Model the fold of this input.
Amino acid sequence: MEKIILLIPSIPIVIAFLLFFVRNKELIPKVSIMLSSLLALLALSGTYYVITNDTPIVGFGGLLIYNQLSAILVPYVAILGLVIRKYATKYMWDEAGYRRFFILLNFIFSSIYLLVMSNNLIVLALAWQLLSISLYLLVSFNVGSNTAVRHAKWIMVIHKGADLIFIFAIVLVYDTFGSFDLAILSEKWLAMSHNHVENPMVFAIGFLFLMAAMMKSAIMPFHIWLPYTSEAPTPVSAVMHAGVVNVGGILLNKLAYLLLLTPSVLNIAFVVGLVTAIVASVIMLTVSDIKRSLGYSTVGQMGYMIMEVGLGAFSLAIYHLIVHGIFKATLFLGAGSLIGMARHESNLPKRLSYELFWEEKIKSKAKKAFNYLAFFTILPILAFVGVKMILTDDFFEFNASIIILAFAWLTGTQLFVSFFKASKSDSFKMIFALVSSFVLILFTYEFIGMTMEHFLYGNDGLLFYKAATLNVDIIITLIILAVIMIIGWMFMYKRHLEDASEAGNKPAQLKWLFYSFLAKEGYFFSLIKFFKKDNA
Amino acid sequence: MMIYVALLLLAGGLPYYILLENNKYLNSKQIFLLSGFLLICAIFLSLSLPDDHPDLLVMISFLSAIFSIYKATKTTSFYKLGYYLIFVNAPFFILFQDRGMMYSVSLLVSLTGLYLIAKFYEKNYGSANYGNITGITLVTPCVGTYLSFYLIALALYPPFPNSLFFLSYIFKSQHDLLSYVVVTTLFFGNFFLAMGVMKKTLFGRQNPNIHYVHMTTKEKIIHFIVLIALIVLSVFGLKETL
Done:
């Protein structure tokens, strides 16, 4: 009876087929939402089955599986899909092609379910390609707009490249390991991981899969399709930023045991992810278009996700993509109502911190604030180490932990400084609120991350950290980290607390050039325009 | 060897480039039909061949395919696009021979759909030229839907049989450098050609100088039959791939 859950990928296709014959426009979203609710319930019952029985549901000759990964992701995608359909009901009402939109939406969700639930590399390849074509048709939904169609073409070219690389990787997997079945392959890979593997073909396979994942997850230098697709309807943007772009992380999780054999691929993933996270986040701050800024924010988050995979924190990547997906979908879907509210009240959006903790202090006490800043930069690390020590002490055996620690520090400090600067307040109420909320968030994040790791990979979780360990001495890592922290700390101090005295000064030429380079996204499009003009 | 040369002549487009390109007696519609017929002959001929291919032949057909891709990007006629697509896919057919038969059948069925769309354009807009017939997705959704299906199939996307047979042969064959080059070229060649048509006629704003016409019930039924044929082939393709 539980095998019925494996029909989940086909339900959106059935919905799309039914929508062809629905004549009444009002019925289109109703049919779609009603059947999607059924799908969400089915997904939740599947998750309940997997958790209570501690066994996956396998069917269709082993082609589909509802395992621990599906148990987490399928309900997430189903509920996200439900919210997006509900939102689109009114949002898309006046658009030409209302029925077409809902049909395409169902196709893209079907391909995501198929991708998550596939237990065979060929099925995975089919889902991988279905996702590309569905995305193309959705992004070019506004067919009358030349820019929408042109940007959709970029998507298509990059995704087609990802499709081909993925197919070649599968060919090599079959040639090397003799199977397409992911369950069989995972067992084989786990058994092989106990010995050192020196086959260059295994590296090539891992690298090709990483490339395919990078292209679909908009990792630099393949990121260019994501920030420029905001012309698509808002529900499509929500699907893209909360669902489609995550497939790279999902793929790498499905192939986690393969990556155990290729530590160098994990190290490449770490470096590429790190560069993407930093560069995209900086570009996000400099571009002048708010939608592109949001796009770069997603690129940066995908960089974090791939970096987490590169560190062996596979389950953390899954948790990250879910949390980021919910956050981004809320941003996109909430933007319209916020604009509507702001038209009636000029002081929107209001910060919660503003309402609760604001105490105006006209004169900024830089020195005192500096002490607080020092306190705040050390505190996040202490809190992180404390929480980690409570949850697991094995984690500190691997120097990947140092990097995760650094990012915990960075995020914590950023949070503290932004709150601190926003209010110019140094009240105890403020400090207590910041510290307690940070520790609470950290504890929740770590606790859920650890639980998820245990749920997804059991005792194998630590193997990934071990494989991903960088071959750098821990003392050197600590020294580099300390230098970065001190530079960052001084930079923030200068930027946030001494900026008033520098107000009248012009920025240095080099700084200005650097800013201009970032704001123009590395002159990528200027170059394209230049060459186009040249050809014309 | 002679039989392989015959195969190349039938499927690879050489007669077209040598004899038919500047021929004044046959128009592009007739050349499309002739090319389709020659491909059918090639399919039957391939049944009697051993599963082995001379590399030289694949190389020649590959060069012809690259030239056909170039020619196809220059045309805005559905008929010309149709026969260029046959020539573009010839190296794959020669590479996999009898195992490539089902791929060629799928190609022919997709091209039948494209031929019917070309006839529809010819009847209602004066020629099979799609250059200025823009924005049909919104104006005539039924034509847009069927044309989208055919183009997605030709661009080698699942769940259509072209893609499934293509994948099946790739996954279950031995590969050398030549086969990787051929597969990559055809994978992108078919894709760019189909996407080019999508951009020019499916998408874009409605052309105010054109009186757009909807499909008749009879035409809808014929296209539906072609679609069913594609779905049936997809089922076979899925079975073969998995």
